[in-house]
Amino acid sequence: MPHKPRRPCSHPGCPALTDGRYCPEHQRLADRQYERCLRDPAARARYGYAWRRARARHLAAHPLCELCEEAGRLAPATTVHHRVKLADGGTHDQANLQSLCAGCHSALHLREQNRNRRHGSAG
Q: Domain containing 81: what range?
């Protein structure tokens, strides 16, 4: 099956073609800018080296999306989700983690946002 055509990097003046938004060089710059200026400093502190190790360990032990498996589908997990948010007292403990594919992770957060709106709490 043919792939989508590659498109120019979104960084001004960069002629490189890419499958994503930025070429690898400018993606690193965009990620650094996001971390430094846009991401909440408290979130940055919670998701450091310990989180990266816990995430890698969990994905190695649970390589398939847990929600897809429950529905009888097999999909590779790309994201590790906290069942109880760190902001709400959750931890990086394996019992609090859930392996998900990108689609299930997005759907889970969308349902959570809709639930918070219905109940009038900030999410």
A: 51-118
